[in-house]
Every structure is written in structure tokens, then in C-alpha cells.
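To: structure subgroup
Subject: Chain for Friday's discussion

All,

I'm putting the inputs and outputs inline so they're searchable in the archive.
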Amino acid sequence: MKGLQRVNATAKLFHYGTTQALCAHVLACVAAYNVAKHLKALRWRTPFQAVCDAWKTGPASFKINPHHLTTGLYILLSHNLGHRVVAEGIETRQVLDIIAGAACDEAQGYFLGRPMIPDDFVLWVQNWVDPRSH
């Protein structure tokens, strides 16, 4: 079975071994068209990009920063796949609070401790106090 597709004023010829293969290609084209139609309505931004743009222009209409949601989604996805999650680059209390609220398993960064030699690390662990307790 042969199918014809027109792309940018040129025709491409496809060969389909079965009717199911033709149907799968047609469904893929329709799905791509439907996605493109929604992206065009969003001026070729993803829905998340559109939300982030709205956050930039009118943050008062939001309860939380949408960028904080992606962190939680990645952590949830990783946990669902059976992985532990380590947040790197924690440099402020605000970031630590966001990560802790998103149920991240481990964290590292200058806010928690500067790079140190192994002997200092042992002492640091023995005397460590959670910075969120201050």
C-alpha cells in the first residue's frame, strides 16, 4: 500500500506494509497536527512556558511560583521510578525549604556546608545542626 504526503510543496512517497501501518502514520500526523494547533495558539510555547510568562507579568494572581512545581514533579517522578533524589547547589534557606517541602531525599550545597577534607567532614557530621532549626 502506498501513501502520499505533501510537505512544503514537495511530495514524499511512503510504503506501508499493512493497513495498520498506514493507520498508525495517519494517527501520528493527526496527533502532531493537534499538538501544533495548541502550540500555535500559545504562540509556540509549551503550556508550562505560557504559565511562567503569565507569572512574570502578573505574579499577584498566583499563589505559588510555578517554577517551584517542576522541582516537585521531578522528585515525584524519580520516587515513582524507585530512585532517591539529591538536590545539588543549595545556597539559601529559601531553596532548602522548597526542596524539603518537595520531599527530596538528600541535599548538598554551600548553605549546608562548604567543601572540606575528610577529617573535617567527620567532625562536621558529629556536630551538625539542621540550619532550618535556627
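Points worth raising on Friday:
The mean pLDDT is 77.
Residues 28 and 70 are 28 Å apart (CA to CA).

D.
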